[in-house]
Design goal:
alpha+beta, Alpha-Beta Plaits, 5-stranded mixed beta sheet, binds alpha-D-galactopyranose
Length: 397
């Protein structure tokens, strides 16, 4: 507790491993062959750009998901999760495929399915999962689960993938297939790459056109600042159709413009003028395009700002990104807008929603000395607005 606000603190890694291990022991009466973990993430900037071949800049949280796993000598998979105590899952790995697994288990067993599809020798196993990544908060709890499963399977079945660049890419690809094809969420890949490839103390610049990555030093504390996450507790879901609708609109706009993706737009005004009126008389399609193109430009500007440790410029880019997501991409909500406005009013250098939107979390860059005051002010604004008290997380990468 700091300044009266509620904080969600990350577990120590040893404690998280121990919790997953003891869950496996008590519920399945087995000792693990491997215990692995992977983090949740926030995206500093570059939202809804990954599936448009654009740029984004995520960084991982100290909050992680833990998987304790032991190999079986048959093809059966048994899964238990401390977060879903009433919904254990078991089945034959060979029976898993698109449309066969409902709910949280799809993210987990989907990774084993995808690795096997890719020719890896993965068989049956028992796994216990525990996590301090808030679920449904837009902090990528699903990718943390997939990535922790991928690492646990890699270790327990001796696949030898983690540690090499190609092997790491194979793990990322399996996580993305699990999410898209088994869990059925049509997401763009940023979260899985972030969970498996980020370095401490750095954000990760991802270019989804070239596949290039760059570790960008991110040290707000060195400048007397802190990055805080405001989990609005307005629960979001990326499987409810809104995310897929945005993605389809972007694909349609690119097709109408005769481009492989919206990343290929070089002249925004010309592209907006070229989109036929009859395809979206209310201008929706043009707004979607404007967000995507300006957002990738903001990522470039944010990286330049970080390279010169100009956090004031980064804060201004957060603000512009939020306005674009709220007005043009229309993926914000009342709680997110309030969190951002209240943080700024209380002295944040900048704030924005992070992740897919429609609920979930915002981030705010704030003077370290003012964290207590600003979080209290945000909490008071939620109270006045009749919303549930938000939860805060420290986003030190
Ligand atoms: C979710 C998806 C990502 C990305 C973001 C928006 O987190 O999983 O692929 O599209 O939304 O930037």
């Amino acid at each position: 507790m700091l300044g009266g606000a509620q904080w969600s603190t990350a577990w120590q890694v040893d404690d998280g491993c121990e919790q997953a291990t003891s869950l496996l022991r008590t519920r399945i009466d087995a000792a693990p062959d491997t215990v692995a973990s992977a983090p949740g993430r926030v995206n500093l900037i570059g939202e809804h750009t990954d599936y448009n071949a654009g740029l984004c800049l995520p960084l991982v949280l100290p909050h992680r998901t833990y998987v304790a796993l032991r190999v079986r000598d048959d093809d059966i998979v048994r899964l238990i999760s401390a977060q879903e105590p009433d919904s254990p899952w078991h089945g034959e790995l060979g029976d898993v495929g698109p449309g066969t697994v409902d709910g949280w288990a799809g993210y987990a067993v989907g990774v084993a399915w995808a690795l096997r599809e890719a020719g890896q020798r993965v068989g049956g196993f028992d796994a216990a999962i525990d996590s301090c990544v808030p679920v449904g908060a837009g902090l990528s709890s699903s990718a943390a689960l997939e990535a922790a499963m991928a690492l646990a399977l890699d270790g327990a079945f001796g696949l030898g993938l983690a540690g090499s660049e190609d092997g790491g890419s194979a793990l990322v690809a399996a996580c993305i297939r699990a999410e898209n094809e088994i869990a059925g969420a049509p997401t763009g890949g940023m979260d899985q790459v972030a969970a498996l490839s980020s370095k401490p103390g750095h954000a990760l610049l991802l270019d989804f056109r070239s596949g290039a990555r760059r570790d960008v030093p991110f040290d707000p504390a060195g400048a007397g600042l802190a990055l805080i996450v405001i989990d609005t507790r307005a629960r979001h879901s990326l499987g409810d159709g809104q995310y897929g609708e945005r993605r389809a609109a972007c694909a349609r706009a690119a097709e109408l413009l005769g481009l492989a993706s919206l990343r290929e737009v070089t002249d925004l005004d010309a592209a907006l003028a070229a989109l036929p009126d009859e395809t979206s008389p209310d201008g929706t399609l043009r707004r979607r395009v404007r967000h995507v193109v300006t957002e990738t430009a903001r990522v470039e500007a944010a990286v330049a700002a970080l390279d010169r440790a100009d956090f004031a410029a980064l804060g201004a880019l957060f603000d512009a990104s939020h306005a674009s997501l709220r007005d043009d991409y229309q993926v914000s909500c009342g709680e997110l807008d309030l969190a951002v406005a209240a943080a700024r009013e209380a002295g944040a250098l900048g704030a924005r929603m992070t992740g897919g939107g429609f609920g979930g979390s915002a981030i705010a860059l704030v003077p370290a000395a003012d964290v207590g005051r600003i979080t209290t002010a945000v909490g008071a604004a939620f109270d006045d607005g009749g919303f549930r008290a938000p939860m805060f997380l420290d986003a030190t990468p």
